[in-house]
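Hi,

I'm pasting everything inline rather than attaching a file, because the server keeps stripping attachments. The sequence lines come first, and each chain or strand is labelled.
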Amino acid sequence: MAISKMRKVALPSLLAAGGLIAAACGSSGSSGSTATTSAPAGVSIGFFGALTGPNAQLGINIDDGVKLAVQQYNANATVKVSLVNLDSQGDPSQAPQLAQKAISDKLVALVGPAFSGESLVADPILEQGQIVNVTPSATNPALATKGWKFWHRIVGNDNAQGPAGAEFIVKKLGDTKVAVIDDQSAYGQGIANIVRQTIPTLGGQVVTSQSVDPNTPDYSSTVNAIQSSGATAVYYGGYYDAAGRLLKQLRDAGYKGAFVSDDGSLDPKLISTAGSTESANTYATCACGDVSGTPAGAAFVKAYQSAFNTAPGTYSAEGYDAANVILAAIKAGNTTSTAINSYINSHSYTGITKTITFTSTGDIKGGGIYVYQTSGAGFKSLGLVSNLVG
Amino acid sequence: MAMTSNKLGQGISEAWVPVRKATAEVSSRWRRAPKWARLVVYLLIVVLAVLAPSQTVGNFMAPQSDWRTVLFYPIGSYILLALGLNVVVGLAGMLDLGYVAFFAIGGYAMAVLGVNYHWSFWEILPAGVAIAALSGVILGAPTLRLRGDYLAIVTLGFGEIIQRVANNLTVTGGPTGISGIPHPPSIGHFSFLTYGVLDPTPYYYLELLMIILVIFVSYRLENSRIGRGWVAIREDEDAAELMGVPTFAFKVWAFAIGASVGGLSGVVYAAKVIAITPENYPLLLSVLILVCVVLGGSGNRIGVILGAFLVAWLPERFRGLANYRILIFGAALVIMMIFRPGGILPAGRRRSELLEGRGGGQHLGGEFDLGQPGAEPEA
Amino acid sequence: MHNFVSQIWPSIVDGTTTGAIYALMALGYTLVYGVLRLINFAHSEVFMVGTFASLFTLHALHINYAPGGIEAIAVFAAITIAAMTASGLVAVGVEYVAYRPLRKRNSSSLANLISAIGMSFFLQEVFALRYGRDLIPFPRILQKNVLFHIGNAEVRSDMVLVVASALVMMFILDRFVNGTRLGRGIRAVAQDASTAVLMGVNIDRVITLTFLLGGVMAGVAAMLYGTFYEVTQYNIGFVIGIKGFTAAVLGGIGNIRGALVGGFALGLIETFGGAIFNAQWIDVVAFSVLVLVLLFRPTGILGESLQRARA
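And the predicted assembly:
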């Protein structure tokens, strides 16, 4: 199953890249300036993220959302858009050559980079190369502090998600003795550290603070530390696979309290890994809203389902929105990256997840945090954290 | 079962004989060639390397990636790292599975000194190399008394520990790493000496310079007292010790020199990429660099460079095969080792063996193939 | 400090459980090293295949619940045999494809190492491409009931299963190697290969047998891992392989009882390291202890060699 899916991804990208090279070769004969002005035929945008490798699933989710947006756009557009995949495998050391590739291929805009780690390496290059990049998923707060003008983010960052998770635990669940665990990744530890800082300000107490290795099978020493600390709630910063295993081992050891995690854990595989009874009393926060409630969102879910034969995954809707932000600018007649950049900075876009308006740093305005609870084999939305804690 | 395997093996071996003879011919000619002829070949390679970063070459070499960036990393960096590891593995015959640690130490030296202390690249370069060499000595001093296979696990652990420590300390930025690493100061107004964000070519030339330097130094070392000492240690440490070779000191030297090249590579890499995180230094990279060395021909510098080039370049060239790259790579390694266990260009007069390489299995093989050279009884 | 004191007994129980799995893995490294002086880096994939084999057996039997009585015994027998067979076959296959041709050509141990790494990549990717790269959950086939307490630590049924099976398997292996004719062949080759050949030992058969035994032990480890942690993944063997190798070196590589001691020691070092220094330092603590042990006992806790005489 995974293979056929991967193939589906790889082949069009290969064709697109091939076409692109042909185009690049063709235009290299004439001088560069004429090539850009006399190119009404179409523009290229890219997706930058992991499509293969161990962290590919998130990237595939986003890429499918982007592909759907481009298909729908091209169905009735004068300026056709082609999509190029830049498969980073989630590996920061591959990011520079792909960012550089985006520049030499004259892409006008990118959806991505998908992860924070690769963003730190790729974004400075994209900035210098003046390529609009809209990330649907890299939530590290530091990205907004670099003064990048071409960088945008359409989800709330960890500075919003961390406090929301802490508020949910202390105010909504009423647990004041919290164990905060992270997976030592830039993402997981970043968010967990914010939770650690926020909990005392809300009157709670961090009774134990641990970092685990997500690749190791055994979390018994962490489980023991949590059990002996008397924590009534556990916050985990990291991704679903390690979260699922930790949750299972916690429950096996007799832990009954709440387990709250972040958007990296908002995946049905958390439940299949931990087991359905073990996943009771388990929550995940996300900057992503549940889109199926609105008509536009329901239409997206239906179209996605029929295009890819699977339900949208985590960040699929955000990928779709990120692409549409760019496509709306192209539709309005902007075909150079600087024009697109100033258009999306000055116009709001009503996406399926939220209304997207960028601040001067490139971060999204507002950007509420939602909380989800496990329900059967999946998650159901409880709504905005700010509404729940009142 | 064993019989068929022997026959099959023999059949394959025989089919391979002409190829082996041809390469043996080439490498023996290479060794017999006069010094000037070899120098000409080296110069030609350098000229090729200087001309490499062109769009025409790139269109073929890396159609789905940016060739000039790929030339810097992974290709150039792998070559530099492989040359450094070759000193440890190929020349001194010690198995180091945690070589990435020194690459990381160089990188973090560049990042910490550059970002926190505002040192310039040219000040950090010697400092980073020195720190890496020092950590090589610190790691080597207690562990180099261990035998080959034990050294493997200890170095593997060291590689892991360095990554863990970088992930856990605040000075290294934890898992977020360090960003905003300064570039080397530009020299004059030449485009190939202007170290900016966009153009990777100047960094590539800088790296090329380092590679040539490392080749030169390791060539001189190999043909010095210490180099001959390494050969002796690799072939038979006890005998070398008996003949008055200061084996321990020489092994520490090899480790320190290898480490300093790793550090050098790390500094240059970090000076280009702006941001580094512990993710840049996985255990897999140590394994890949070792593969570069052995695949190319442990102990043979040209072979090692070729091996590093292939290991770095092929995955970029065949990005379209994304999902099958590692599968093919794995199968290729097994097949290569079956047919060319000494690597693409085996080190000539050397029996490129590890210290303990003459134990059971290799020795047992000798029992069957009586015609094989080098099947002397176990010491 | 109170926290640490309350973690002492749980740490001992958990460390013993993980240690049992490490010890079974360590046996594979130790047996092969004892006979061939070779680190079988593909052993982690032998383990990985075993976890998949027991999972697929459960799927084939449509077991997604915890069976009881006779059925439980039958199910455990089935997945154990499946895992042992699959892992044993893969281990022998790895030897046949990646090591034997090299041995016949008298290759260096570096070439063997690279060949093993290649084999390891290949096997991982085969499973990654076929079954995806995500964690694959096991059904719960053993209720994790608390059987009794040691101090303040709960001892669950699955922990007892892991430790007891590991000890039984190691006892059987020890008897086999030290008490049977075939085992004598292994010891003879380990002690002095050329003399063993002269004495009429069929070396290829001994080597195949050694890989088979190591693979079978990894298969048992894989079955226990699947039952205990209830997940598998294409790269699941990597970490457990490194741990097993570390345990083998810690106890004295090439020494069967050393693998047992090394496995349990490593398990305990890890849980106590985690309890004292926080979980993020576990690996650093484990490797530091390893280096210290090697400095004072350069051949591990019990020393090298497969023969009892030198153990």
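The interface with chain B takes residues 3, 6-7, 10, 14, 17, 21, 25, 28, 51-52, 87, 89, 91-93, 96-98, 100-101, 103-104, 116-117, 120-121, 124-125, 127-129, 140, 142, 146, 184-186, 188-190, 211 of chain A (CB under 8 Å).

If the labels don't parse on your end, tell me and I'll reformat.
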